[in-house]
Amino acid sequence: MNIPAELKYTKDHEWIKIDGDTVTVGITDFAQSELGDIVYVEVETVDETLEIEEVFGTVEAVKTVSDLFIPVSGEIIEFNESLEDEPEKVNTDPYGDGWMVKIKCSDVSQLDNLLSAEDYKALIGA
After folding, report:
1. Burial of 112 per CB tally in 10 Å (0-12, 13-18, 19+)
2. Residue 37 needs a FRET pair 20 to 30 A away by CA distance; which of 1, 62, 71, 89 works?
């Protein structure tokens, strides 16, 4: 199970890469393996400002659909449009080409509440 130490995580199995007040978000290797083959990623909240833990999109796999929860309050400034044609990137490269959105944080103090790699490993029993 790949859990990069330099990233932060949520209890909802999302990873967060922090770059100043902008964060990149995707789902973890654990989440994509639990979901199975991902066939569709839908994000219709670009240019919207959402509060922490609101739903910003969905991931559809062969057997289920899962909501995506925004890990910090802020504006969704970019969607990884390559996922429209190649949603399987979330399975093959969840921490790279499979990223989902970029968010401009409105409250960077919320980043302090995210899980470390060690905390996330404990959460999933890795």
Report:
1. exposed
2. 71
